[in-house]
Amino acid sequence: MAEITFLEALKQGLWEEMERDERVFILGEDVGAYGGAFKVTEGFQQRFGEARVIDTPIAEAAIVGAAAGAAHMGMRPVAEMQFIDFISCAYDMLTNYVATARYRAGLSTPMVVRGPCGGYVRGGPFHSQNPEAAFFHTPGLKIVYPATARDAKGLIKSAIRDEDPVLYLEHKWLYRRIKESLPEGEEILTPIGQARLAREGQDLSIITYGATVWKSLEAADQLAREDGVSVEILDLRSLVPMDDAAIVATVRKTGKVLIVHEDTRTGGLAGEITARINEQAFAWLDGPIMRVTAHDVPIPYAPTLEDFVLPQTDDIVKAARWLAKY
Amino acid sequence: MGPRTVPAVPNPAAPPIPAGLERWQLLELYRYLRLTRTLEERLTALYRQSKVIGGLFRSLGQEGESVASAYALERGRHQDILSPLIRNLGSMLVMGAQPIEILRQYMAKADSPTHGRELNVHFNDLEKGYLGQISHLGDMVPVMAGIALTFKMRGERRVGLVYVGDGATSTGTFHEGLNFAAVQRLPLVVIGEFNGYAYSTPPTKQFAVRDLAEKAKGYGIPAVTVDGNDVLAVYGATKHAVDRARQGKGVHFIEVKTFRRKGHAEHDDQHYVPKEEIERWARTNDPIDRFTATLLDHAWAEPAELTRLDGQVKDEVDQATDACVDEPLPAPDTALPGVFVEPATAERLWFRSL
Predict the structure, then answer these.
(1) What is the pLDDT averaged over residues B82-109?
(2) Which of A23, A43, A142, A238 is the most exposed place for a label (fewest CB within 10 A)?
């Protein structure tokens, strides 16, 4: 059983769904002949043809809009945003058209919009974003954000099979950094709406998703080693719907919560998670719910600046240490 | 109405009918025109009685292009699909939308096609072949491109048709969608409606070309400008474009020149439009008057036939109104289900159970 990367797992998931269901097709910028900016769809056009792997103009609203029209007709489009930062060009189409379609008009719109997101890669303000908060607020869009290779595969497959539109956020820092052995021949389908316990612990819960799952795991190891603090880590992996039951369960277990996300603080998901804990598990809290997030600035380019702005393992260690002593 | 119920020629001396149409089809076109106007007049009455919940949008003076363009499509279950705008009620009726559905939509009834969730003509029936717009103008161009893309991918000989107003051609989604469709050579017909005003803004403040059709050059697609109040001209131009699209020859743009004789919506007093201009269009260039004169002048119809159709249409609208005007609005808690398939319903918030 060979180890495969996060990117390879995603690619496998896409490939398997293309093989399984002829309604699945891919459209996006440079996805065909070139194989995608990060080579997620490399080899797809050779295998599935130009009709199912469509190179589009630079036109995110058209990509998402056309995907929606095809989805209404029973197709299963997977639209790639070359970098997820460009999804804002399709914000209207996603929030006004796609997200509302089932509710306002009974229209089925089973489609996936996926793309590389996230920082720690010196991408600067327009190749480092995490867009989840902008869409999290809009009823009608599911959002998944895998952290492991297994979930990269399992969630893309589940997203394609879902009856509703799904934003699939893939962290480019994880693409080739994360490796895992996935059994061949096993159908991996990660259920949308279920969190994953990434580490069991007793003293404090970290609720996180995406690349910061790995930074939290590093922090937890360090805390166990140096402080004897036992940290539990919940990898949300599905942001909409969010697994409230798993959140409440870990809060009840440890009584202390640190929410870690790479996105900026104000209006970020941590605020919503905090509110839910407040509403559903207030009595179980033994301390304030604290946040470790990016600073409220655009993501800068220079390594010194980016490292300062984004949450680092050391930040998580210090924050958890502070909270553990509370 | 159909070929068997209408005698082929009432008057043997009548000249041949253009555009491959038959006499029963002319009468059917007339009926849809009359139905559109009568239904909108009924909606106006209901609006004044405060039975229409939201705004009322009239297509007065531009019913001809809506009806004629839609009539050029293949209709029936799983045939061509169009996407209408607020002033394309006529096109939806042609595709098979029922007057009672329109009435229920405007009055936000529980049994309306969207169960009170959406307004006016914002609803759809993809089997019959219409996909309602959203309010963000231009957005339906990419969506209809996606529908046309599906026709192409599946090798189906079906055509999509999308309406855009003169103002909507300023949007980014119009450009992105049309460009994508042109590059992909999709079976899509775009009807650009030059009706003089986008809300209150005239075309001179909207774009620097004279005719919308000039814009088509930038997409490498053919375009034509037609008299939008000439029903047979619009039908002929659309039929040509639709046939061409069906043969795999790609996107076609049709500009229809018409005039919006009412305000943006019923509340709008149109103070920005010269009164004489509205009167002139009403007096000399009403699409239904013109089509009626064409039918009678060419002896393609007899006055009594048209009068009879007028009566049938009125009865149909009366019956539809009577059937739904007193229906209830949706029950409040039906607001929660149906955002997703799963979870099936949104959460009822805690303070509503206190």
Answers:
(1) 98
(2) A43
Strand-pair partners of B223: B253
Set of chain B residues whose Cβ sits within 8 Å of the Cβ of A139: 339, 346
Nearest to A70 among B123, B150, B341 (CB): B150
The active-site residue out of A72, A127, A137, A295 is A127
- Contacts with B335 (C-beta within 8 Å, 6 or more apart), sequence order: none
Set of chain A residues whose Cβ sits within 8 Å of the Cβ of B123: 105
Query: pLDDT tens across A50-109, in order?
Result: 999 999 999 999 999 999 999 999 999 999 999 999 999 999 999 999 999 999 999 999
CATH topology for the A196-324 domain: Rossmann fold (3.40.50)
Q: A residues 134-153 near B, CB within 8 Å?
A: 139-140, 142
Class of domain A3-181: alpha beta
A190-219 burial code (b ≥16 CB/10 A, e <16): bebbebbebbebebbbbbbbbbbbbbbbeb
Q: Find the mean pLDDT for residues B228-237.
A: 98
* pLDDT value, residue A184: 83
State yes or no: is B272 an active-site residue: yes
Question: Any chain A CB within 8 A of the CB of B351?
Answer: no
> Distance from A250 to chain B by nearest Cα, in Å?
22
In degrees, rounded to 5, the angle at the alpha carbon of residue A220 between the alpha carbons of residues A218 and A222 is 70
Tell me the per-residue pLDDT of A9-21, one tens digit each, with 9 for 90 and over.
999 999 999 999 9
Q: Where are the domains of chain B?
A: 23-353
pLDDT of residue A117 exceeding 90, the answer is yes
Test A77 with B146 for CB contact under 8 angstroms. Answer: yes
Size of interface A-B (CB pairs under 8 A): 131
In this predicted structure, the answer to whether residue B8 has a pLDDT above a threshold of 90 is no
Put simply, whether B147 touches A (Cβ < 8 Å) is yes
Min distance A154 CA to chain B CA atoms (Å): 18
Catalytic residue among B272, B280, B283, B348: B272
The CATH code of domain B23-353 reads 3.40.50.970
- The pTM (predicted TM-score) of the whole model is 0.97
Q: Which residues pair with A115 in a beta bridge?
A: A169
| pLDDT for position B4 | 67
pLDDT at site A237: 98
Nearest in space to A170 (alpha carbons), one of A139, A208, A141, A211: A211
What is the rounded distance in angstroms from the CA atom of residue B39 to the CA atom of residue A158?
Answer: 46
Is B176 at the interface with chain A, CB within 8 A? Answer: yes
CATH 3.40.50.970 region(s) of chain A?
3-181
Orientation angle between helical segments B303-324 and B99-106, nearest 10 degrees? 40
Residues in B closer than 8 angstroms to A142, CB to CB, are: 340
Average pLDDT of chain B? Answer: 96
Closest CA to A134 of A267, A244, A293, A239: A267
